[in-house]
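anyone seen this seq b4? input:
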Amino acid sequence: MRRVFGLLGRKLGHSHSPAIHAMLGCRGYKLYELEPEELGAFLRRPDLGAVNVTIPYKRDVFKYLDVIDPAALEIGAVNTVVNRGGKLYGYNTDKYGLEYALRRAGLELAGKKAVILGSGGTSHTAAAAAKALGAGEIVVISRSGENNYGNLEKNADADILINTTPVGMSPNCPAQPLSLTAFPRLSGVMDVVFNPLRTGLLQEAEALGIPHAGGLPMLVAQAKLAEEHFFGKKLADSRIEEVTRRLCRDVTNIVLIGMPGCGKTTVGKYLARLTGRPLTDVDREITARTGLRPGDIITGQGEAAFRKLETDVLRELCAGTGRIITTGGGCVTVPENYPILHQSGRIYRIDRPLEALSTRGRPLSAGGMEGLRALFERRDPLYARFADVTIANDGTLDEAARKIWSDFCENTGA
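predicted toks r here
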C-alpha cells in the first residue's frame, strides 16, 4: 500500500514543506487542507504514513493519538503524527527547530532575559526552547495579558526577543508587531516567520546591528527531525544546512536597479534565459495594468502619482519568490521601496557609463548630458544605499548576466 505523507492544516496556501521534505528524501509529501469535521477520518486512514500538523490542528489531534511524546505534552502542541502499526504517535519537532535556529545564529540565552511576542501555540514552543537553552527569565508579551504592548517599558531590559506572532508574514510585509527601540539592551532577535526571508522586524535588527535569525532554518531543522520520526532513521545534521541554503537560493529574488537606460531590462532577459527564472519588468507591468507608459503617467499625472503606483506594484511583486525583478530607474527615490525589495531579494545595481545611457522616451533623463549628470548625482547615493552588489555593464550583456548569477549562487544563503 502506498502510504500518505504530508502537511495537514486548514488553509495552507503556499508552503515550502513539500520542497523541503523532497530534498530530505520524502518525495511523496503533499499538502492536505481539511475542515475540522474531516480530521478524524483522515487520521484513521489505513494508508496514513505520517503527517506534519499546522494551524489550527496542533492541539485538536491529541484526542486521536495513542502515544504522545513527553516534550509535546509539555508544550501542549503536536506537529508530527506517525502511524506505526495502526497506532498514532505524536511529537513536537518545532522546539528542536527553534533551538537549532537560535544556536545557529549565535543567539546566547543562558542567564539572559527572553521576551516572547505572542501567546499562541508557537509561543509555548518558544518558551520551552528558551528554558532548555538556559534563559534566566522568560516573559510573554500578549495583547491583553499582564505584560502587553501597552506597557513594554516593564521589559525594556530584555536581552533576547523572539517573535511568534504572524505579524510581518507575506503578503503583509514589512509590517512589525513593534519597534525594537523599545528594548535598548537587545543582543539578539529571532522571528519564526520564514516568508519573507527578512521580516520588518529582522530588517530593523539588521539596521541596528543586532544579531538576528529568521524562521527558515527553524523550518528546515524541524522537518529534518520529523523525517527521522517518519522513517525511524537518523539524518546527518549537515542536511539542515544543505537544504536551508538550497531553499534560500530558490526563493530569493534577483532585483536589478540602476540609472534609466543602463540595461536593466535587457540584462534581466539574459539572466532569465541563463537561470530559467521568471522575469518581471516593473515598468512593463505598470503599462500592462494601466495602458500607459511610465513616461506618459509622469508627464500627465506627475511623478508622485507614478511613484505611488510603482510602490504598490513592487509590494505585490516582491511578495513572490524566486523571480527576477527589473525596476524603474527612480524606484530608489522612495525610501519605502527598500524594505520591500530587500525582504526576499538580493539587489544588484547595474552600472554603465553616463555617455552610454539611453535617454529616448525617458522624461526624467531629458536635458542632455548636463541633465543626465545632475540626475546621476542625485541618485548615485541612493543606488549605493539600496544595492547589495554593483555590477559593471561595460562588456556584453551576457557577461553582465553571468556575473550576477555567479555572485548570486556564491552568496545567497540563509
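The two ends are 38 Å apart (CA to CA). The chain has a mean pLDDT of 94. kinda curious what u guys think
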